[in-house]
Every structure is written in structure tokens, then in C-alpha cells.
Amino acid sequence: MPGRVQSVERAAAILRLLGTSPEGMGVTAVARSLTLPKGTVHGLLRTLEHVGFVEQDSRSGRYRPGTGLRQLGTGHLDVNELRSHCINWADPLAAHSGEAVRIGALRDGKVLVIHHVFRPYEPQATLDVGCRLPPHATALGKVLLAYDPRAAQLLDEPHEPFTPRTLTTPTGLRQALREVRATGWGAEVEERKMGRAAIAAPILGSGGTVVGAVGLAGAVERICDTRGRPRVSLVGRVQETARAVSRSLAARR
To answer: Which of 20, 37, 103, 248 would suit a FRET pair with 161, their CA atoms being 20 to 30 Å apart?
Structure first.
């Protein structure tokens, strides 16, 4: 009968320890608490970070439990259920913002559009429900990647440059995802199509797991201000919608 695997036991001990420290812990503190060599602890933490089980604060250097742990046992929310909770909120967002609204979920490395509301007074638009968008070049995709523990694998794959502004390097994309996690929303400006921009925010399911994203998209001059930055008012509307859908999902429990 095979024996126990020491590295797994140590990794589990680290996760239990981090779970008791809301402010996170550095390598030295973890090593001291578990009486382990710093080199061993550092290697385990880096591996746990790679798979999404821990996250490191870029400023303090401390580690804390990551989103990957919260997704264990929760699985993906069925897209039909997610769509049913979004319908009541997507239409008002389109009406108040004057822009097209899309709801997306990450599936097989792409953003699957599960709901689409046309921009008001633009009935000639093409329905995007069912289409798959590139995550690296869309606001929806950046938001979904930012909270997905498997994002590290996707970032290392080749990325198509749709426009001169498309982020194609792992370094550039990682920085963009850090900004999403820091602000709670993501954007893209002429990264998939010239003259177009979008804003998105995460939808939370049970246990705080990100199960989808809601976003609006339109012409750059409507989405962005004179400095080329997403308008604060539109960012607020998107975040409010994401929170409303998240509350609706929480209420089903």
C-alpha cells in the first residue's frame, strides 16, 4: 500500500494556515509557523499560485487563499440558469446606457455569449448569442480570465493580434488581469475592432465564485471620455448590474 506524499501534506498545511490569516502571510511567516525551510515553502507557494489555490498581493508580497479553492466542488453554473437570472437586468442596462449588452461565460478557453441585448434603436445588429469571443481581446474575457484559476495556461498560448492595440504578450495580459482584480471591472478599447470599446464586470455565484460577466459595448466616442478612458458613469452602471445579477443568484440558494 503506497505511503503518504509529504509535499501534498505540506501544501495542505499551508492552505489551512493561510485560511486562518485574513491579511495573508509571507514566506518567512509560513515557514516559521510550520517549521519548514523557506525554500521549500516558497516552492510550494509558487506551485499553489500557479494552479490558482493561492494569490500573492503584489504590494505586500503576502499570500492568501485563491479563487481556485472556492471553485472546488462548485462546478460551472449552467448557462441557461445564468441567462435566466440575467434577462431582467440586461435590458435595463441597455436602455439606460444606450449600448449593446452581452452576458458571457468562459468555456473551453473562449467567451461564450449566452445573452445579447441590441443597442436601442439599432435593430439591424447581428445576434451574438452562441458565438465565442477571444478572451484576450474583449472586456468580458479579461474579467473572466482575471478570476479563473486556469488562466495561467491560457495566457501562455499564442494570441491573435486583431488590431495594433490587442494585448498579445503574457506580460501585458497579466498586468491587465491584475488591474481587473484591483478595480473589479475590465475594459478593452479598440483591441478587437478599431473604433469599438467595451466595459465588463464579474457575476458572482455561490461562495463568491465568478460564474460569468456582464458587459456593454459600443463606439469608442460613446464608451470613452475625451482622454480615451471608459466613462465612470458607464462603469458604475455595469458594476451595478453585475451586483444585481449576483444577488439574484445568491437568492436562489
So the answer is: 103
